[in-house]
Structure formats: C-alpha cells, structure tokens
Amino acid sequence: MTINPDLQGRSYPAAEVYDVGREKIREFARAVKATHAAHFDVDAAKALGHSDLVAPPTFAIIVAQRADAQLIEDPDSGIDFSRVVHADQRFTHHRPIIAGDRLVAELHVDGVRAMGGGAMITTRSEIFALAPGDAADAAGVREPVATTTSSILVRGEGQ
Amino acid sequence: MSVNIAELTVGQDIGSRSITVTRTDLVKYAGASGDFNPIHWNEAFATGVGLPGVIAHGMFTMGAAVQLVTDWAGDPAAVVDFQTRFTKPVPVADTTGTPEAGAVIEVSGAIGALDADAGTARVDLTVLSSAQKVLVKAQAVVRLA
Predict the structure, then answer these.
(1) What pLDDT score was predicted for residue A132?
(2) Closest approach of A140 to chain B, Cα-based (Å)
(3) Measured between CB atoms, does B66 come within 8 Å of chain A?
(4) For chain A, which domains are there?
(5) Is residue B32 within 8 angstroms of chain A, CB to CB?
(6) d(Cα B137, Cα B86) in Å, to the nearest integer?
(7) Does B106 touch chain A (CB under 8 A)?
(8) What span, in angstroms and rounded, lies between the C-alpha atoms of A158 and A1?
C-alpha cells in the first residue's frame, strides 16, 4: 500500500484529555535517567517557582505520539507502522508542563514527500492546557503549552 | 538560575557524561512513554525487519541526552526548545543478568549561540555511541534570564 498523498494539510482535532500526574512525571524522568529534583520533589519544584512537579523536556512526546497514532492508525493513511522510522523531532515549549495539567493535542500533517518507494511525513502537534473542568472539545480558553514537530520515514518495500 | 548569560562564550564546554543503557532501560522507557514498538525489545522482530538487533528508542536517546543541559541550567523548565535528527540506531546488546551495559551513549555539550536580547543560549550536543554520531543537529535552547 502506498502513502495517501492527500494527507498533506489534514488535521485531527483534540480527541482526548491527557491528565499529567506526578507519578507519571517521576516514572518518565526515571526512564530517561533524569535526576533533577524538580521532577521528583514538589518542594524543590516550588523553590524554582513552579506550582508542582516539572516534566522533563521530552515529556510532551507522550501526548504527541498519541496524536500521531490517529494518523498512523487511520486506514485511509496507508502507513504501515512496522515500516516507520523516526527521522527528526523538535519540541518548542511555550511554558513548562506541570503536574496537574490537562492537555489536549491538535495534529496537523504539514508535509508528505515521496522518498523512493516510501514517504517522509512531517506532523505537528499543538498542545494546549485546558481550563479546569473543560472537555477536550470545549470552546473555552486554552493555554498554548508546546508545539512538537516530528518527521517519520515510512520505508517502502525493499528499503 | 545558576548560569549567567554574560559569563558565557560561544564554543564554551558545558560538560559531558556517559549514559549506560540496558535492555531493562528500554522496557522501562517503553512503559513510561507508551511506545511499544517491538524493535525496542524483541530481538527476533528487530532482526526480522533488517535491524542489527534491538535498538534504543530514538526518543530515549534524545530524552536522556538533554539531562546534561537540564542539570547545567539548574531548572528543567529552562529548556524552551530542543530538536534533533536521528541518524544512526543505537543497538543495545542483551546483557540481562550481568552487570554489563548493553550500550553506552556519550554526550557532550558546548555553547553554539547566544542571544542576549532573548536571554537564551543554544547548547549544541554531540551524542555518540560506539564512536558513531547517533543524533545530529541536537540543539537545546535554554532561557537564562
């Protein structure tokens, strides 16, 4: 199956809320071998001026890859996940991710480029924090938290 | 903040560290991140798709490498932008049950650019495993003011 060229420009709206928990921040921090006290100790985070534990700089990948899954699992996309290679990644933080945040991601397909028998697909997740009590699709005020961009290479047959 | 931008110069070293990686670390990262692609934990699957063996998640390497910057800056929230390209996989040998590392990632950082108006420094990371560059254009922008 080949990659659907019409993917470019497609967007997927915020679908589910990701609740950022303290234990998830601690677990992710340990998994990337981070030792900074602001990931583990609320008082240490507060001493730096944060309201709660601070997530490591690549934590947003959890939310971004959930958003990407909407595209990869879309039967219309033509993407075979077993042939996907991560080519590049960028995080731009508008503010840090803090325990207690309720995050949603809007996914945008910014580029689809044929490469041999495969394709390079560039996606962007705009990650926002919801106001307390708002649903993922609420029309309320959302605070921009991070923009992540990612390129994946979907290898063609024989690549 | 422990770093004063006025005291930095382009090219200055911010330090280096070695990160050991085991298969257990990859299982932990899979669970923490939700990325369960079997190329990161199943040898037969990895070789079946043409890889030399189980490889580390690129996002594990990226996430572990930036800790040098976080610790240097003194606050994880100071890293306002972080990007990389993934150029070479990091194969992780199965050393389960032994004290040996399955791979070692060598990270070093230097000041790549300074923006006094924005109060930011760009740290360029060199990230090697088995003497190969595994991340390219690994750049973290740190807000210091």
Answers:
(1) 82
(2) 26
(3) yes
(4) 5-20+56-154 (3.10.129.10)
(5) yes
(6) 9
(7) no
(8) 13
